[in-house]
Amino acid sequence: MLKMFDYLFGMFSNDLAIDLGTANTLVYLKGKGIVVREPSVVAVQKMPNGQQKVLKVGMEAKQMLGRTPGSITAIRPMKDGVIADFDITEEMLRYFIHKVHNRKTLVRPRIVICVPSGITQVEKRAVKESAESAGAREVYLIEEPMAAAIGAGLPITEASGNMIVDIGGGTTEVAVISLAGIVYAQSTRMGGDKMDEAIVKYIRKKYNLQIGERWAEKIKIEIGEAYPGPETLEMEVKGRDLVSGIPKTIKVNSDEIRESLKEAVNAIVDTVRICLEKTPPELAADIVDQGIFLAGGGALLRNLDLLLREVTKVPVLIAENPLDCVCLGSGAVLDELDLLRRVAISS
Amino acid sequence: MISPIIDILVPVWNNPFETRACLAAILAHSPGARLIIVDNGSSRETELMLEEFSESLGDQGLFIKSERNVGQVAAINLGLGRSDSDYAVIVLPHVTVQAGWLEALVSVAESTGAGIVSPLFSGADAPDLPNLAPGCTSMESFTVSFTTLLLRAEMRIVAGGFDEHLDGNEWCLKEYVRRVAAHGYRSCIAGPLRLSCSAGQQFGSVQRRNEMMQNSRSAYISGWGAPRHYCFYFGKGADTGSLGDTVAAILDGAREGHSFTLLLHRHQYSEFRKLGWNALHTGIALQQLSLLFPLRDVQRKIAALESALPGLIAVKWGSCVTFPGVDAAISQGELPSSISARTTAVAGHLQEALP
């Protein structure tokens, strides 16, 4: 009986693909494309009875970060690429499902959710249950590197080896894919967030200036680089002087930011290098021919592709739409159920 | 009699669950053998599984770690380099051994003196090895598989390891079998025991594998000459008793990688079987001619063989014998020089590309 209701409600629902990132959540609606692009933040209020009430999700919740009164907390349920709080994540999923269905309540969509590679069985089951509790009729999990590879247009179903490097907010995942399967994957808890932290620390140490996460991210995007470019870029940065306590503006340049990002970038480069070394020579030869593909927000770090090419001696290409790759890839499989069944991981 | 010392070598690259099952089965069914595990650049998950597994092995286990994946053949050579036993048995991780497997292989090696012994396999993705003649427990063969392979230590000392520059499969093995044959060591397939095996991992694009296969084939041919296919017809009146030297020459040819089809009249076929000549080598196939129209059957069979194997060489026994359907046949006297000639012309079936 329940299955019949599921089937009926499913007819009025649109299939979704969700990229639950550490920094941002993207939702792909079948037939429409990416319809939601919001921060992975939830504002909750602690009730007198000890329960938590969700107040805001996404952009509105992010705007409350650092500005909330005592009883309200703005939290990120995803940490380092994995779900840290399943109840909050379930609420976040419920919010996004209802948002894309224009707040209709009786919807039971089929959902594809991207998860980090190497996720444990317990975590997989928990993600599936969260999604089902949030209203999903059917839940498929696919690994982020696989979704990124599909989104980047790599020929994943062929026997040739493909290497994808997905640099997200919380983690960087490097995977070698062949015959619609991840043959080898390596991940590191180094991503965009840690790059921002590194910039904050550097400026604090060098200039005694405290800047916020948003400023750090802005610096990273505007003048951050992994490898020296033809010119040195500069920008003004606003923060609070740690000695005097008053707001102050300084100038920083790309050489300094490159220095601050060195450790984070080296961690990513080492992960790629190790993955190449551990790949069988037959697949490595294919990768040398086809190149290494970069995806995720971190792929946009200036000259990261040049640095990787310099170290690995392998061509490096940036996916056409690196920020949306994972979501686009998981959305693409909504239209190809046979492929979805091949690439989905069992829970 | 002193039992031989045996090392079982397992090259590992990821797939921790399947590998663990393989190792556990080896431990359970191979009493007295030492396990050499070569970790060929596996992930941390597999590393941890191997470390945990090796802990309980003590002296019965040797754990070799390569930080990089050096390729399967190089990993096997790495393990063989550390083996100092009488026999080294390579077992790939997608094989599940069973009770009596090792004894069966060693028994064939000891009774035949073979340098290389391969078992048969079962499973949808099992390697395609030739079948044994009915009633045979072992048969010489030029075709073996890395899936499971027993190697004699003294043979490895004189012949060396596998060539890491070849394709890691068909031509690498052919080259090795040919090389050990030059030192007087035989290669056998052991039956009737069949080891269960699942699909092995095959890496790289079809194009690249094809290219590698072609390059390896060329290297083999330039070193050892092209393998050829011969079709023999002895004539109805040939006395089986006088064919001993010819059959010995045929066997020598099969050991060098050439293949033979012998078209036999009924009485010859029956006598060959009595003498055990149907079970000499998997590269020697006996075909019985029909009772009623044997010469027409010869023509039909030779036409079918020529169509399937361009470059087929017809051989007639004796100058008086006519080989129906064949314009140019060599005589058995010319056979040894034909076999030893290292021509680069390739028999037709070897030119097939990978699917």
Give a concise summary.
The complex is a heterodimer of chains A (347) and B (355). Chain A is α+β, with helices and mostly antiparallel strands and 347 residues long.
Give the SSE layout.
The complex is a heterodimer of chains A (347) and B (355).
Chain A: H1 2-11, E1 16-20, E2 24-29, E3 33-39, E4 42-46, E5 52-57, H2 59-62, E6 72-75, E7 78-79, E8 82-83, H3 86-100, E9 110-115, H4 121-133, E10 138-143, H5 144-151, E11 162-167, E12 172-178, E13 181-188, H6 192-207, E14 209-210, H7 213-223, E15 234-241, E16 247-253, H8 254-260, H9 262-278, H10 281-290, E17 292-295, H11 304-312, E18 316-318, H12 325-332, H13 337-343
Parallel strand pairs in A: 1-9, 9-10, 11-17, 17-18
Antiparallel strand pairs in A: 1-2, 2-3, 4-5, 4-6, 7-8, 11-12, 12-13, 14-15, 15-16
Helix pairs in contact in A: 3-4, 5-12, 6-7, 9-11
Chain B: E1 6-12, H1 16-29, E2 34-40, H2 44-55, E3 61-66, H3 72-81, E4 87-91, E5 95-96, H4 101-112, E6 116-122, E7 138-140, E8 148-152, H5 153-159, H6 170-182, E9 187-197, H7 206-224, E10 229-233, H8 244-255, E11 259-264, H9 266-274, E12 284-288, H10 294-308, E13 313-316, E14 330-331, H11 335-340
